[in-house]
Amino acid sequence: MAKKKGGKKEVLVVASKVKAYIKSKGAMTSSDAIGSLNEHVHAILDAAVKRTKANRRSTVKPQDL
Q: Do residues 58 and 52 touch, judged by C-beta distance below 8 A?
């Protein structure tokens, strides 16, 4: 897991882009939405890497996601 000092995971999403996308859909972004999205992205990627290794590969492919 990619963690920064203090135990927080590295941010993998671009908050401004996510907020702009949500705004373009006519909704607002809560203050904790980006953190939650980041947690989901980490979980998706962790699962993809696990699947990749289970299939004896080192390259994550679309089907792993």
A: yes
